[in-house]
């Protein structure tokens, strides 16, 4: 019943992978392929061969990387977070225990799994051991049946945990619950919602995309290699370290709703000014809070990083002078908030926004270099939609061709969405830069 192949980017042919050139997903796929191959060559292959050779009388099949890739995909395309009793995960254990669970979220460039620590509270005294063992620990695993459900934003069902067995008669069991029984017809497919995932994550993990995905996001980052080569790199890197500066940020599509060109462009203007993130930023209060503050869609943490990177030599000296006031008066190192305040007081937004515009323009150039502009992708999609389904045959070669078409179709939808988001966020950044220049002069 399990699939033998997958549509995720790890399974793409070189021709299909070329459709992703210039995207974060392309780089992530190449890196992950190398990582999996390395794990197989250095660890998995030898262990499996040992296990297979235990029975010398049996003929052992060749251990192939493709089998390892299949097993890896079977797990990560179907895994769910399962709450298990503490006593089940740590049978007969005592003392503090800790486990980790992975929540499949694409990060910046590697799309690795975000790790969430979950600490189980054990008992110290014997009388507390019983209550401790009833606590749940979330562990990722496979749930036969539920893991066959496909994804839909408007899911017909949700999966729930029956901790004590009221619904199923089995404690710590799971079941599917229909969202609206009256709307389900006999024979209808039961969908669940995999969560608010962008197309980058969906294509990487599961092998499908959602056209015009409302949960799409764009990753923007400042390269570490470039940071090491800028003027006064050591000083700036030290300031970023104290600030816990982020060199990358995820920009969800939903942020655009509150921008200058978004659907809420005229709403809540006064309210947003009253909760200005710069209310505690300005060192002396001499720098005027910009009028466009309530329309900035970019995370302030990332803009703080860009302000530090964009500083000129004379600005670094001025920032150092402000920070010396703190060190001399209290004999301590300035805090991250104080550094942000000093940099904001000296630099304002002009340098950071100029750098942000440059990053987004480079992003667009990378996206368009291999696969053309957004308009070209739209034309290709129109051609896909106009294909006559009667052309499909049941031959194996034709089926392989159809799978390749589906993969390429998914790539085009994903990369067009990335180009669209880059264009829209670039428009916001360019307009902010223009306003910043007017207010600074």
From TrEMBL:
InterPro entries: SET_dom_sf (IPR046341), SETD3_SETD6_MTase (IPR050600). SUPFAM superfamilies: SET domain (SSF82199). It comes from the Eukaryota. PANTHER family: SET DOMAIN-CONTAINING PROTEIN (PTHR13271:SF55), UNCHARACTERIZED PUTATIVE METHYLTRANSFERASE (PTHR13271). This is SET domain-containing protein.
